[in-house]
Amino acid sequence: MNARIKLSILLAGVGLLLAFLPFNASKTFRLSPGELLKINYQDHLFTVDEVARFMNSEDSAVQLIDLRSNAEFMECNIPGSINIPLDDLLNPDWEGYLNQGEKRNIFYGNGDETAAEAWTITTGLGYKNIFVMKGGMNEWYKTVMLSKFEGDRITPRENALFENRYRARRTFTEINSLPDNLKRQYLEAKRLEESQLDGGCE
Amino acid sequence: MKRKNYMNPYLAGVLLGLVLLSAMFFSGRGLGASGGIKYAVVAAVEAVDQQHAMESSYYSKYFENGENPLKSWLALEVLGMFLGGFLSGALSGRLKFTVEHSPKISKNKRLLFAFLGGVFFVYGAQLARGCTSGAALSGMAVLSVAGFVTMVGIFGSAYLFAWFFRKLWI
Amino acid sequence: MAPISVLNEIPEWLNLAIAFLIGIGFGFALEQAGFSSSRKLAGMFYGYDTTVLKVFFTAAIVALIGSQLLSYFGLLNLNLVYVNPYYVNAALIGSVIMGAGFIMGGFCPGTGISALSIGKLDALIFLIGGLTGAFLFAESYPTIQTLASTNYRGPVRMDEWMGVSPGMFSFLLILAAILLFWLAEKAEKKFPRPDITSEI
Question: Are residues C144 and C186 in the same domain?
């Protein structure tokens, strides 16, 4: 067999391999430490009340991301979130969600630390639109789920606040008390819905 | 020494590909040649008429921040090319001062068209921001559209013009 | 992790030494392939010698495959490797002018340098013409500037433009190259010029 044929077979084989390789341009930090330091973390926080409002209005400009383990996620999560356990953060499957400029990604964990860590890494990688829900699930429980209005009079502002929380409370309880398989269906449906919306109105 | 045969083209291609890959790996860029010619001209113009060089927007940008175009990656690479070609020629018994031309034309005619070819080629390379090595070869290896367009353009138009200049070669 | 010089602070002399070594490899490979002969290079356009096609495509594909695989294994960050930007008008017009120069002169700058290094005087004249061409460009720059800079599309890649994965595009390119290699060998059989091939 002459050189051309040998080479052609070799190249065709490698080419076939490449054609089905997932494209994974290796991740490096795009920002230097100095640049990262300049970005103000405080400007990238949302309160649990704001997140509750996003959830209630089913705001599609926002993506909630639960950084806890899959088990904790299935037990209960903020409806509308997707689950990216912190260890899995750099999996290329998630790059489409994280590395884009359209939706705002809001990380949350049980407290503040996990979300802050994920924020630092993704912002350092150059991803835009990364935010954190301040206080995490702990704060969500304390404020949205458990807080009650106490007092005689309620101002319109407080009224709006508590109404928001009660609505969120209801949705949260409903969705999270679904049996596992129905919950999975709900989450799948949400994900499909979002991926279909992607095509739409540019 | 007796002249050795040229290397098998596919093998030479693999070798060249590995050189290009190492440029990408070590220096994050592809190969180049016409850029080296440009730097030579820029350096010469600055040496001969510094004022003109500094006044021109084209030349002056090569001297910003006290940089010297002759102390650049490309310039050293081009220098290396002379040595590499020489070594290959020496090892293969191909060193010889000669004007290579088709027996159907005179030596002078060959030299005239070599000169004109050089003028056109490098002028075009400056415009297209690369030649066959820099834009086409390295561009294809990084999948750049500019690389493919340039390659198709160079080879396509050379084929179109080939009939008009056939007397030079065949 | 590579590219080495981009991701590490290496001293300037080392950067230049690497360039020099790579240049040696480049010149060596070009001359070994026979690109130090203008009549061999011109043969591509008349059918009697298709070495240019074989070397060119093989080299581009080897580097392409190599870099894709290195990237997959996390050894090379392709985002940090230079992708030449696309200026539509300049690329089209410039490449046509280059094609004319190639068929007239029988060289391109890289092959001209490797030819000069073994003593080809026509390459010397080609390169002198090249220096002239570069000088003409530099002097005519104010006039030609707009042409050179219009229609800027950025460092767009073929896989992005076509909407396929880089691996898939590489595969398609390989298939195209295999076809071209086969056609090239057929052409050499169809348009032989033993009088030339025996001399170059």
Answer: no
Interface of A with C (CB under 8 A): 4, 7-8, 11-12, 14-26, 28
pLDDT tens, residue by residue, C60-93: 999 999 999 998 887 888 878 889 999 999 999 9
Same domain, C141 and C171: no
CB contact under 8 A, B129 and C132: no
Question: Which pair of tokens denotes residue A77?
Answer: 């999560």
Same domain, yes or no: C133 and C168: no
- Three-class DSSP category at A175: helix
In this predicted model, what pLDDT tens digit does every residue of C100-151 receive, in sequence order?
Answer: 999 999 999 999 999 999 999 999 999 999 999 999 999 999 999 888 888 8
Indicate if C106 and C180 belong to the same structural domain: no
Number of helical H runs and strand E runs in chain B:
9, 0
Domain hosting residue C123, numbered range: 84-156
**Residues C118 and C131 occupy one common structural domain:** yes
In a shared domain, residues C150 and C168? no
Identify whether residues C1 and C68 lie together within a single domain: yes
Strand partners, A131: A106
Which ipTM score applies to this complex? 0.95
Q: Which of B55, A84, A125, B134 is nearest to C109 (CA)?
A: B134
Identify from C32, C160, C172 which residue to disrupt to test chain B contact, counting B C-beta atoms within 10 A and taking the largest count.
Answer: C32
Which residues on chain B are in Cβ contact (under 8 Å) with A3?
8, 10-11
**Spatial CA neighbour of B120 closest among B105, B108, B131, B133:** B131
Question: Distances from the Cα of C20 to the Cαs of B9, B12, B66, C56, in angstroms?
Answer: 24, 20, 22, 22
CB contact under 8 A, B11 and A3: yes
Task: Round to whole Å and give the CA distance between C147 and C135.
Answer: 18
